[in-house]
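Please review this one:
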Amino acid sequence: MEGPAFFRLPIELRLHIYRYALYDRAAITIGSAQLVGSPPDIVHKLYAQGRAPTPGLPYQHIPLIQPDYNDALLSLPNPAVFPAASLDSDATTNLPYCTKASLHLVSRQIHHDLLTHFNAPHHRQTRLFLSYPSGLHILRTLPRASTLLSQARSIHIAGSYTSHSFSAPRAANLGSDAPPPFVDQHFNGGFSPNSAGQLSTLLASLFGPKPAHSGLTKLELRVYYPGSDSYSVVWGDDNSPVVIALRNVFDGQVAVEVWRGQRGTGVYLCATRTTENGEKPKRVVSTIWRRLEEGRRGEPQCGSWVIDEKWPECGDEPATTPTGEGVVVTEG
C-alpha cells in the first residue's frame, strides 16, 4: 500500500513545509470567568461528567485559556462572565499543544523528520496574557498549562492586590460597594491560592540567577491597589506583587511607573533581559511617579488602568528609563 503523497516529497521540501507550519498563536489569554444562569445550569457545568470546580479559583468561576487576546479576562471593573447554559463543557479543559508538539504527534515519520533533520527556530512568537491572581494560578496548576512558557516570547500580567492585613480605616475606604475584584472572595475548595509563592516561582524561572526560561525576555506587570491609602501597601507589604517582582528579577532593565490616585494606586513594572549568556548579571531599576485620574465623571472606571491600551500589540524593545522630574534610577 502506497503511503501518503506528502512523504514522497524530498526531505528538503518537507523541512521547508515544517518551517512554515511552525507558527504559534500571536497571543494567549489565561483567566477565570464567573458562570451566570440558573442554579441547575451552573451545577451541571461545574459537576457533570465527574467534573469538579477548580480549587483556588473564586466561587463559581471556571478557568479559561483563550487562543487569542481577550481583555474581558483581564478586566477589573467589568470581569468576564459566561452563560452556564451555552458554555462548551470542554472549553476550559482542552488546552491545545503548541505547534511543534502537535507536529510530533501527527505521525512517526514526521516525528522522525523533526528529530533527525530539523532545527526548530528559536524565535518565540506567542505573547502570554495572565490575569492576577486567577490566571497565574491556572498557569501554575492546570495540567499542561505550564508548557505555554516554552513558546512564549513575553508575559503580561494584569490584576489587583488587596492586603490581607489592612487596617480598619483602609477597610472603610474600600467601602461595601467596592467592585468584586476588590473585596474578599470565597474560593473553590475552601482555600485561596498562594499567589505570592506562585508569582515568586514564575519570576525566578524567568529572571532569577538560573532562569529555566531564558528564551522569554520580557515581563509586563500591571497591578492596581484599591483604596485611597493603598500607596503604603505597594512597598510595605511583603506579598505585594511589585515587591515580589523586585525581589526576583536579578538581571535586566526594570522600569517602574507608580500611578497615584484618590481611589487607588496603579503600578506598572516592565522587565527586559539585557545581558547575554556568560555576562555578569546586572539590574538597573528606574522609577517615576505619575497621577492616576479615575472614578469621577468623564474619567475611566476605577481599576480599568490595568489594561494597557496598546495591548495586544507589545513591542519587543527593552524597558526604557523614564525621563523627567521625579525619576529615580538604581543599579545593583
